[in-house]
Predict the structure.
Amino acid sequence: MSSVITIDHVSKAYGTCQAVSDLTLSLNSGEILGFLGANGAGKTTTIKMLLGFFAPDNGQIAVYGQNPSDATTRQRVGYMPETAYYYPYLNIHELLSFYGGLCGMSADLIRQRSEELIVQTGLEHAGKRLLKTYSKGMLQRAGIAQALLHDPDLLILDEPFTGLDPLARIQLRDLILDLKTKGKTILFSSHELSEAELMCDRVAIMKAGRLVLDKPVKEVVCDGNTNLERIFLHVLQSS
Amino acid sequence: MHTLRQISALMRLSLFDLYRRKDLVVVALLTVVLLVPLSFATPFGVKGASRYLNEIALLLVWIFVLAIAMTRTARILPTEIESRTIYPLLSKPASRTVILFGRYAGVLLASLSVLFLFYFLYALINNLKSALFPWEVFAQAFLLHASFIILVTALALLGSLYFNPDANLSVMGILIVSMFLYGQQLPVLASEHALPIRTLIHTFYWFAPHCELFDMRTRLIHHWPAIPWGVCCMIFLYALTYAGLCFGAAAWLFNRKKI
Amino acid sequence: MLWRLSILALLVPGLFFSTSRLIARNSAIRGYSVHPQQGKTGNLLDIIAGDTRTIIGVALLEKADAYYHGGLVDHGDCSVLTACKDHDHDHEEEQTTRKSPAWRDPLRYLNEQLQAQAHIHLDREGAEEILPWYWAACEASPHNIQAIEAAVYVLANMTEKPQEALTLLEKGIQNNPYNVTLELSRSEILMRHFNDFKKAELAFLAAYEKSLHEKAPNDDLEKAKALFYLGHLAKQRHDLTSLREWQRIARETMSPDLASIRNLLEIKE
């Protein structure tokens, strides 16, 4: 399997605060990686570096072997931010049309993809409503739709389950698993350990900017008496 | 083609922003509320005075269009960053310069469309009242006003990378009003001072935006003849050059900004 | 209510534009003295604007003068009131001498191209264009005597509305009870536009009496003018006793150097 993401001894500091320290991580094509950690562990900083929002202080980051800040790299990446506030004066069709235009998609393709995704994310009943009238869960779904719009090969989802009701969680989980079957590579950060355990091939746990665990889920929970939640607590307390 | 689609999408967003937020409706209502009573006024029982109405109408157009253009431009980036909509935006395959240009061009287009609307209404009302409407001066006034909007929005865009929106609007407001009032007095002021201050004032004179060059209201109101089109084009080019430099600086800063 | 709104609508842009122009030119307000408010009328504008009404009034008066000059702001000491006294000068020359070559300062060159090229005065037909600004100036600052005087001149002499001028003067006198200038203007309007010599004489008498009042500014010219007209009107109705009395007062209390006093003393029985 070819490597989609390569993070090689990366460090990043905000002033005196070391957000990420000497992080080395990779993600192979078709894999789902659960990127876990407590608040302030450095997950979002790592994701922002992966998206090319800023460069690391030290080390190298490559996405599909290229600099993540290149527009051509981002053509293959879909991103859903942690707290998704979209333009409140647009409806979902207009929002997707806007992001589609940014991806350079033709109007016909945008229309076709938008309709599919609106149905997939269960927003068809709210198609004409402005986003300012959406609930948090509906905005999360809109965020997923925009991330998937240009049919990216790599999906980076930052806390995708936040604000979703149980039914929506199941729908999103099914959607992610469906994407995996289509060969997409997915990295998602989450506090929802049960979801990670159900979906991920591999988990990486961060603590205070350092990677403290990077193993396949099967290896982590090989013992039938344990689960990811216990492992997570154990790893954080012991390291 | 790819870049054009991106710019067009970003421009559409700004237009939606302006028209969906109903700012324009508020501005239009305010204009009507201020102008309608005045249009029925008969000071000292004398009817027929119209220049004062034109003057107030044009002043309102200047204030309102400037307010719309400045507030919208000053808030483009801070609002995107504050509401975190910048993240999905930057994650798309568009360069930061294209994003900045598209958003700026959108706000500019929205502001110019408001300007056009106001001038159209002005011409409509005046032309209904008078067969001798000064079309040439009117066209020049519109062109120079549009140039002014191009310049100040680019300046506000640059300011938005340094200041928060409120500070940006205050600084730009002071700068614009000061240049309107003192722009042409700066060389006189410089000549009254000793060397270091004189050089400072002269430098400011050459680099500050000369907003006073774009105001043709008096010519329009008092039926003065049109200015030579060469002069008009020079002022337009001045605005374009100034705006281009401001945008270039803003793009350079935005590409280096940590978000 | 609609009128109040109109006043506010005129005042707000007026304040913004006109006062800023005044400050910008960094000059003393030519020809107009800023009168301190002599008392509050307790109306809405007083509450909102307070003493700034005086400044606004002066600014609006400047605006009116600019209108009189076809929009030209820098028109020297030339105003409606000076123009009525056969004022004649060549502003076009002033404008052209200021021009600077384009290569030396292109910004200044461009600005000069935008500014007024010629100094024109509004004719009688265009005079009504000035009135809204005078009206606003008088409403903004009821104690601005210059504004009232200028408005009266335009109304009575340029737009043939002497009745409106008289009404404005009466309102002005009400607001400025010790002002001799307004009383004299009222007398002249009554005499020249209405040929009502009886009322005019009473108004001149009131002007003279006011000029003696301790609260009135000590202006011998105005007092002399009132005395001259009182004597002149007494002669006109063949009241020689009154004429002699006015001549005696003039001789005893006024300087013979004043033209009006000389003219009064020269009236033959």
About this structure: The longest strand of chain A covers residues 3-14.
